[in-house]
UniProtKB/TrEMBL annotation:
EC numbers for this chain: 5.1.1.7
Localization (cell): Cytoplasm
GO BP annotations listed: lysine biosynthetic process via diaminopimelate
Site feature Could be important to modulate the pK values of the two catalytic cysteine residues, where: 160, 210
Reaction catalyzed: (2S,6S)-2,6-diaminopimelate = meso-2,6-diaminopimelate
Residues annotated for substrate binding in this entry: 18, 73, 83-84, 192, 210-211, 221-222
Protein known as: Diaminopimelate epimerase
Pathway annotation from the record: Amino-acid biosynthesis; L-lysine biosynthesis via DAP pathway; DL-2,6-diaminopimelate from LL-2,6-diaminopimelate: step 1/1
UniProt subunit comment: Homodimer.
Active site feature: 82, 220
Main location as per UniProt: cytoplasm
Swiss-Prot/TrEMBL keywords: Amino-acid biosynthesis, Cytoplasm, Isomerase, Lysine biosynthesis
Amino acid sequence: MDIFTRSVPFYKMQGCGNDFVVIDNRELGVPQSAMADWAKAVCARAFGVCADGLFFLENSDDPALAYRWHFYNSDGSRAEMCGNASRCAGKLAHAIGLAPAEHVFGTDAGPIKAKVLLDGPDQGRVKVQLTPPKGTETGIVLDVDGTPLTVHFADTGVPHAVVFVDDVAAVDIMDLGPKIRYHAHFAPAGTNVNFAQVVDDATMLLRTYERGVEAETYACGTGASATQLLANQLGLTGSRADLTTTGNEVLTVFLEDGNVFLQGAAELTFRGELYLAPMGLSL
């Protein structure tokens, strides 16, 4: 019996502990109609590779874009954007010759500018310019189990609610996170939920409950960006802040002339072959 059935090469990457499977789809040609099922199967723990999300890299018909991606959360839901994954995409695209170190690629949220830093103290890190934030709102008072809770909101490619707390470590994120994520105020799409502790005007601690993963993740780039954007609007931080995530990694968010820039690590951890039949997949 031959167990080495049809296989597909993949890359495993992580951005500050937020981990992703990446598939170069330029020649493979996985149809978009099948991508959600691939994400659910490949990202599954024990039966797949195990990851927070999966994205496919493809050529773009738009000459202004080096390539485009299709991004899916581990539950198969398609996401407009993911900050940590965007840094991974930029670094891998440069490494495999798909794009130069500085380039623009396409997402459902719009074009993303990426720059792989090739020298200096931040060598190896990646800086991305996110799409313009929208829907920003501060001072939203929600009824959560009969108790008023003040949250703030910004869409930095995907929707994010932000709650500022005195002690982020004390938050019961698996209890409070879903209550905000599914709150009627954010229906029908729901929202990601961030809990932030301001240490000083340039430093915060951050924990994120991610929509689509439905759990706390080690980091969330768009969440860090939304948190810094809102903290700055509330007068809590300056134009640049370092946010330490659950994975004890640091994401740096810059606010420049109305634009949001996210900088942090993006690492290739391994690559391998996906055997399709055991995961119920085919081409």
